[in-house]
Prior knowledge:
This protein is of the alpha+beta class. It has one domain (about 1-140): START domain (Alpha-D-Glucose-1,6-Bisphosphate, Chain A, domain 4). Helices cover about 30% and strands about 40% of the residues. It has a seven-stranded antiparallel sheet. β3 and β4 (about 60-70) form a beta hairpin. The radius of gyration is 15 Å and the shape is globular. The N and C termini lie far apart (about 40 Å).
Amino acid sequence: MVNVQTEILIRRPSSEVAEFAANPDNAPRWYENIHSAQRLTAGPIDVGSKVAFTARFLGRDLSYTYEFVEYAPGEKLVMRTALGPFPMQTTYTWAEVSGGTRMTLGNTGKPSGFSKFAGLLMAPMIRRATRKDLQKLKSILEAGDAAGPGQA
């Protein structure tokens, strides 16, 4: 079982942080390993929305689809994939705190087959990667650079 939680303080209003982070069109801007995100369902993001991602992890290109299973705008987003060798759930939470927004990014998954062994090695790698991703998100938002692809 992999269960990794990371958090960061972003000196921007929680509504702004949540809007940017929850928009899958922005994922390639702040996730180092995600190269593309394609919405598979029309309309605004909500429970039931599906997004196909292409990422590079452990030297391999991976394609996977996340389904949004819980969404409270500005508070919480839960995405889950059940396909592939490493089913994963990703949870974002945002909380208004003194000085900005505390964003928490959690990843949980239960690898099977060969990935079960790899899972032991994956938790530290996922933790390191998500810390870098949250730091990049913080840099984009605090620099006022959120406008661009994926923003209205």
